[in-house]
Amino acid sequence: MLEITHIDHISMALPALDPALALFEGLFGFRRRERWVRAEEGYEGVALDIPGRSGVGWELLAPCGPDSYIQRFIDGPTGPGLHHVAIGVPDVDAAVVELRRLGIEPWGTPAAQPDGRWQEAYIHPRRGGNGFLFQLYSTPSAAHARGDASAPPSATPAPPPPITAEAGAEGGAEDGDAGTPDPAYTLGINAVDHLSHAHPDREQLGAWYESVLGMRPLHHSPPEESADFATLVLETPTRQMRWEIIQPGGPDSFVQRFLDARGPAIHHVTFEVADWMQAIAACEHHGIETFGEREGETDGAAWREAFIHPRDTGGLLTQFFWQQRPGVWI
Fold this sequence. Notes:
This protein is α+β, with helices and mostly antiparallel strands. It has 2 domains: about 5-175, Roll (2,3-Dihydroxybiphenyl 1,2-Dioxygenase, domain 1), CATH 3.10.180; about 185-325, Roll (2,3-Dihydroxybiphenyl 1,2-Dioxygenase, domain 1). Helix content is about 20%, strand content about 35%. It has 6 helices and 17 strands. The protein has helices at about 15-25, 70-75, 90-100, 200-215, 255-260, 275-285; strands at about 5-15, 30-40, 45-50, 55-65, 80-90, 105-110, 120-125, 135-140, 175, 190-200, 215-220, 230-235, 240-250, 265-275, 290-300, 300-310, 315-325. It has a 9-stranded mixed β-sheet with strand order 6-7-8-5-1-4-3-2-9. Strands 11-12-13-10-14-17-16-15 form an 8-stranded mixed β-sheet. Strand 16 (about 300-310) and strand 17 (about 315-325) form a beta hairpin. It is globular. It starts with 5 loop residues before the first strand and ends in a 7-residue tail after the last strand.
């Protein structure tokens, strides 16, 4: 099992940055840290803070040209959409040894940046990652400034601030200050609740997350909850957010259609919002149509949920929910 110190950021790859920034700053209320260009590596990116208590950053990546690896991802079966999650470990070399003990051959291992500020290794989507890319990083000192988010940032004591971009790259790193989003027209996010990983077998993938990333099972959906899908919710070691595994309930399940089109991959992200009516009004203000709205009550406390379609986010299915009392929505 890997020792996880921090979930640093969630990275999304999409064709262009500016339309995505308008959405993620205006509707989602993310706060821009910095924007950079890595022309020699074929991409540009923006680092953002997610509001609320999770301490997880968000990254947007876009290709600089047709030969960019980001463009290849976008053109592939899982793009555009979530590209990777960056996870801090105490020592990448030790993590590589542990991955090999677990039967996973790391990808690009272990690579140190020229300035020596951090090392990285990856779990490849098709060679151990069950359809998703995991970026592992470590730094020699917690005192270092955080690095470019597409290359992992530094691991400062938990909870470290979200990602920032490294200045001085080719093409320059711009100050990303675009002003403060008007909170009246944002979703009012107060936490990243979970990422949902679609897979044919929730128990098999759950065992992988337990043995490799040290996650702990919290909730198995009972058979009577839905005939279309079944879920397993896990707690991450850092407790910043949770992980969900969603498996199809049969050949006609929407999860099966997703798997047929993309294979095992991250299916959606879920945010908690502080005020349901504000979140719905914000979507209407920005011309975003929601769907799949549901409401219910658990132990006398109300909850509500809805989705935003991937076509409105640049390729990412987004769920948001409100709960009257912590823990009644799961």
